[in-house]
Amino acid sequence: xxxxxxxxxxxxxxxxxxxxxxxxxxxxxxxxxxxxxxxxxxxxxxxxxxxxxxxxxxxxxxxxxxxxxxxxxxxxxxxxxxxxxxxxxxxxxxxxxxxxxxxxxxxxxxxxxxxxxxxxxxxxxxxxxxxxxxxxxxxxxxxxxxxxxxxxxxxxxxxxxxxxxxxxxxxxxxxxxxxxxxxxxxxxxxxxxxxxxxxxxxxxxxxxxxxxxxxxxxxxxxxxxxxxxxxxxxxxxxxxxxxxxxxxxxxxxxxxxxxxxxxxxxxxxxxxxxxxxxxxxxxxxxxxxxxxxxxxxxxxxxxxxxxxxxxxxxxxxxxxxxxxxxxxxxxxxxxxxxxxxxxxxxxxxxxxxxxxxxxxxxxxxxxxxxxxxxxxxxxxxxxxxxxxxxxxxxxxxxxxxxxxxxxxxxxxxxxxxxxxxxxxxxxxxxxxxxxxxxxxxxxxxxxxxxxxxxxxxxxxxxxxxxxxxxxxxxxxxxxxxxxxxxxxxxxxxxxxxxxxxxxxxxxxxxxxxxxxxxxxxxxxxxxxxxxxxxxxxxxxxxxxxxxxxxxxxxxxxxxxxxxxxxxxxxxxxxxxxxxxxxxxxxxxxxxxxxxxxxxxxxxxxxxxxxxxxxxxxxxxxxxxxxxxxxxx
Length: 632
Description:
By secondary structure, the protein is an alpha+beta fold. It has helices spanning 11-16, 73-80, 131-149, 155-163, 205-221, 252-255, 268-274, 299-304, 314-322, 330-339, 342-347, 412-427, 444-453, 469-485, 496-505, 515-520, 527-530, 543-570, and strands spanning 21-23, 28-32, 38-42, 86-92, 117-123, 235-239, 245-249, 370-376, 389-395, 401-406, 432-435, 456-459, 588-592, 610-619, 625-629. The chain has a five-stranded mixed sheet, with helices on both faces. Strands 1-2-3 form a three-stranded antiparallel sheet, with no helix packed on it.
């Protein structure tokens, strides 16, 4: 606790002199020795008020003595933030003017002026000062201090300074450490540095006295504090022009391990050339510029960046820092430091919601003008007919789907034949086709074919299947239907017709009607409509037909139930688990490295999850952007 006092009387001293008590009526500390003598020591800022001893008090009920507890620095910091809490601080001055209170104790004077004991209350409650009195007293104090500093100047200079006294600081002395600024002082060491420690230089008695005075002043201001650092540099003094001693520190040992600042210094001849033909010159001399800026606080880096710490998170770093350090807005500082740590941004997992809200595609103008396509497969083993894949084609307007069995290894030309045979023949050429980046859809043949027919190809972004989400959902629904139907024979291609009928007969939540009705404006008749028991003539029933009807009914029932459940899941709000991205052109971002082949010499488990830094230079879409290296 840096109070600027030689010592503070504590509990052991009070126990030794049990007859010590405070007389608040006279603002004195009463000391009674074993010899029977009584001493009165005034508190800070008070004088002893001589008063006659009061008459002996009447017997009364003894009041309990106040309890004394030892508080930690954190508890003390909590107390001083409360209102109406009073503390007492003890000072030591002029003690040797009194006789020693105990013959067994001897006081040795260490200074020319002997110390004494005094105590003053310190309250956390500060009454609101009067504006008039505060302003006037401050102006008087500044005027008096300015007059003291300008007393030795010439009258003309003194009058000029007094005329422009408002440009001078309110106080010529420091009241504490400088405020937080954008610039902080730091010393960067070379990687292979060695701790340097040098013995102190021999000082004369006046120099030792001056060193002690300056150190006490720096301690009082908070510029320095006691340290047990292994680094050490000696001090020496240089005499100024006015005869005072300037404190200098020999940092030549430290300079050998310091990274040199290679910023070019201005040339003297160039500076003199700039001053040519000038008649008036001005210079600014910063008073004690050595103490104008703070040292960079490395406490957070020590408890977060070191390998032995492991780049722990915000809460753990704050807990470790708070054990030893206290400063204003410490929590916000640690939070921002951890959030801006480059290593943590590149390595840690992203715990936030995925960026980018769902951007729906434009609604087509009519039926079969825009379709989406996707493959399901490979489905191993292949069926007896050689089918091991499915081509799913969905009309984006009516939601009608076509399921075509095929081979997974078909070429782009085979895909074109299927599309022309199953889609173009019945519905005409579409204006646009949406698909993923399957090699068959991105091949030169497929692109050139649709350039000839005037069909626009729209591909989804890499690792972004939401663009082709309609076909993905149709494929998932078809898979659920076939999973319920296909059991033993695994001949799923024989049941595609039933699955397609069931899918297109179900009501779509997007259109409010079935895909069949939206496409054909009527409900096509299907075998199940004529196989209901009420529609059968009694003489048409037979055991074989009844089994087939039951089989068809079970398939249609299962298909309808599963399609209804699938449509309900699809109707859930897509943006519930998403968040809009905050990025804009010019921002520096990190790139997700999960799907990129980087750091080939590092184990996949220990590779960085992000790399960069890259800068956004163009917005391609509402949630897509093009980036470049930030160094370009």
